[in-house]
Amino acid sequence: MHAQEMMRLALEEAVRDENEVPVGAVIEKDGQIIAVAHNEREKGSCFAHAEVLAMERACKALGTRRLTGCTLYVTLEPCPMCAGAMVMAGLSKCVFGAFDEKQGCCGSVYLLTEDPAFYHRVKTTGGVLEQECRQVLQRFFENKR
Fold first, then answer.
1. Catalytic residue among 12, 51, 56, 114
2. So what's the pLDDT on residue 52?
């Protein structure tokens, strides 16, 4: 599947729960979708970001703790926690939609995923369907105000 098609699936996942900040994630390997997730922080866990949930599900589906050969598509640039988890899981690539100038760690604030201090690097690409991803977030926060 093409990156834009995968990001559209992540956008669909992002809006599944109207009470959650709309971030969606899809993980694929060898052209097959192996995990999808959306934020579930309002259910009581500050660690329930879409990326972390998708990676946990992907590891379970693959029967491994390593996500070598996998690509994560996520609607918002990963935060420090998620970027660190991507490095520790050995994820091969991350493609994100909207940039997060306040806490994005795939290039906006810091490029944690490619820091030579770590053993593993995660290739990142940002801005895929950026406008659509940003609009979903803007609408959510406008409705909360």
1. 51
2. 97
CA torsion 33-73-57-41 (nearest 10°) is -140
Nearest-angstrom CA–CA distance, 136 and 139:
5
Q: What is the pLDDT of residues 117-128, one digit of tens each?
A: 999 999 999 999
pTM greater than 0.85 (yes/no): yes
Under 8 Å between Cβ of 71 and 93: yes
Q: Which residues pair with 96 in a beta bridge?
A: 74
Inter-residue contact 129 to 15 (CB < 8 Å): no
Q: Is residue 28 flagged as an active site residue? A: no
